[in-house]
Structure of Adenosylmethionine-8-amino-7-oxononanoate aminotransferase:
Amino acid sequence: MSDLTNAAELVALDRAHVWHPYGPMPGTVPSHLVESAAGVRLRLAEPLGGNRELIDGMSSWWAALHGYNHPVLNQAVQDQLGRMSHVMFGGLTHEPAVRLAAKLVEITPEPLQHVFLGDSGSVAVEVAMKMCLQYWQSVGRPAKQRLLTWRGGYHGDTFHPMSVCDPVGGMHQLWGGVLPRQLFVGEPPAGFDAEVDPAYAAELADTIERNADELAAVIVEPVVQGAGGMRFHSPGYLRLLRELCDQHGVLLVFDEIATGFGRSGALFAADHAGVSPDVMCLGKALTGGYLTMAATLCTAEVADGISRGSVPVLAHGPTFMGNPLAAAVANASIELLLGQDWAAEVKRIETGLRAALDPLVGAPGVADARVLGAIGVVQLDHPVDVVAATEAAAREGVWLRPFRNLVYTMPPYVTGDEDLARIGAAVAAAALKG
């Protein structure tokens, strides 16, 4: 086939053959062709909302912390490419992966000492759940096979993670009859600054106590529930979960795939609460949005427990586990983040988003507007018109991707004040149009 240089031809082929996330085949919502990206801007092949260049208000699904085409990250990939792009991780190791694991142990809560490098966020959660189930099997408590979580959560699209996503409001109702049956409590009461609700605390305590003999772990998204509804809750519930899990012999898993690396205003959302989980999942921003990679960290107790079992290995090994290119750019991204005052940048973004979104409270069709760190959310009282809202944002020169009843933004940390103001205006326009 000859080179395809015509944008219309590419879009037609895309529509005919490419299955996009959370969409039918063929697609019913347009996919817009991106020619290139640099800084915080995406350049489209054809205009959207009258603009070919759009500020990315999504960080490419929350991953591109440093924007696009960053010279430091580009160089890290190029340098590693000259040495090796990939090598199997079974029986072999390499410097980028070793340094990445050591760095993750250094910057995450202290009890987390061991790192499993996987392919994606869903795989990180799969591995976390497998670790917890195998731990109890290995230490002689095979009845502890279920997991508990709260409603409103999202942990990935592969099978076991689907079982701990919201069973009604999530995207996986179709599989309810074949997924493992997990335990759910109600959604955590909303509000990052809210006091812990005694009735909800009692519900958590009672449910964990009554089911402790069959519970392997509690798994939650700490502080921010992402794709399940973009809700914020008090760090106090994380402290309560830590106490209850310790009291009743249950492992605690924090899914920090969306919140890791500063997004909520703390380097990890667990830091808001000053507690550590037994297992932590990382992904998305791990490589600065360059390559797919995720990590599952655990304590020495969890690893030692598995190693004492009749099957003393964690039987999981992705082909591209510990990929050198991904590990090299992850190292560079983490160094780039920690080498600057990232917390001040996130706070600056938070201030800018509050200025733009707070006035929307009480506007027609708006149920709520909320901001935490570099996350801004407008919740509508009706399902969003995705096409209309996307075009409204594009007319403001911004790319947004609304879903359900939410128009939200998670901009790159390098977004300047002028671009941030445009993102805020675009969220408002999309919310009022959608």
In short: The radius of gyration is 22 Å. The domain at 74-339 is CATH 3.40.640.10 (Aspartate Aminotransferase; domain 2). The chain has a mean pLDDT of 95. The longest strand covers residues 41-48.
